[in-house]
Design goal:
By secondary structure, the protein is mostly helical. The protein contains four helices and no strands.
Length: 100
């Protein structure tokens, strides 16, 4: 499995958190940091930004007032949000690692 596939699998976790990343997601990111170098993870995450944003925009446009459409949009919006937060988490973890 590639880094991007690992990241996509992690960010597909169906958990919602209103205050940051869910614990399960953080644990999975920590596992990634053991498996890959932070620079590799960040490069893969940056590569996922545009496809995730495009998928979220497409889902938003196709909502059309349906409940299922709204749920689909929320799922895509969560992935975009989690990706942004995950980049910050990995960057901070990398800074801590470099400081030690």
């Amino acid at each position: 499995m590639s880094i991007s596939e690992d990241i996509d699998k992690i960010l597909s976790i169906q958990l919602a958190s209103t205050s940051g990343l869910p614990d399960k997601l953080i644990s999975s990111l920590d596992d990634l940091l053991i498996k890959y170098h932070p620079a590799e993870i960040l490069a893969s995450m940056n590569g996922l930004k545009e496809p995730y944003r495009d998928a979220e925009l497409k889902a938003r446009k196709s909502m059309g007032g349906s409940g299922m459409g709204a749920e689909f949009h929320i799922e895509k919006a969560l992935k975009v949000s989690y990706l942004k937060q995950s980049v910050i988490y990995i960057e901070r973890a990398n800074k801590r690692r470099q400081a030690n």
